[in-house]
Amino acid sequence: MRILTFIVLGLVLFSACKKDSPKAPEKVELIAPAKNSECTPVQSDGENSSIVRFNWKAADHTEDYELQVTNLNTGTVQSKNTSSTIETLSLTKGMPFSWVVVSKNSETTTSTSSDSWLFYNPGSEISHVPFPAELTFPVQGSTAFKDVNNEVSLKWSGKDLDDDIESYGIYFSTENPPTTLLKSTDAGVNELKIEVTSDEVYFWKVVTTDEEGNSSVSSISEFKTR
Length: 226
Hints:
Elements: H1 2-17, E1 29-32, E2 37-38, E3 43-44, E4 49-57, E5 64-71, E6 77-82, E7 86-92, E8 95-104, E9 112-113, E10 117-121, E11 134-137, E12 142-144, E13 151-157, E14 165-173, E15 181-186, E16 191-195, E17 201-210, E18 215-217, E19 221-225
Parallel strand pairs: 2-10, 12-19
Antiparallel strand pairs: 1-4, 3-4, 4-7, 5-6, 5-8, 8-9, 8-10, 11-13, 13-16, 14-15, 14-17, 17-18, 17-19
InterPro entries: FN3_sf, Ig-like_fold
Protein name: Fibronectin type-III domain-containing protein
């Protein structure tokens, strides 16, 4: 009986001393620059650059944030670490960018990324290049199920500050990168059904072209079929 009492007491003490696992930092909600917009720089930073302010809401269980801004034309990434929810960067004028904020906590190796928003840093340009199309379905790296006609729907969305998108070119292949133009659609079409086979990995991208002949290329997305 005495031994059983010691065992129970030991378990109680162990439970009392055991620390809870650290919670992962939560996802940031972005505020500005607004999604698919032309930003308003704080000030000019010379002939070719301007200072852009970024703002987001604080995330729970987060100590620090990493702001990551990508020039969509060059692929160059600029980043800053901060404990604040406001940060600035000097960016090239007349270029499209994407931005994300990564939440971090020193008590865990887990980090959490925000959504990725696109914006345009204004310059002296008259015509804007369309933002790269956002590939929305199938979700990147997911498994897509064929319908009764052995088809899967590809879905995407596009945005141009001049509102003059003319067409989308859908490239689709079992090879990466996809170089086969499956079909070109007009600006009002954001979905295309394609025939697929089971247990195959497919890659696809969308090239957006506006009425001025400007074009942009989306990221490459992949999915597996069932």
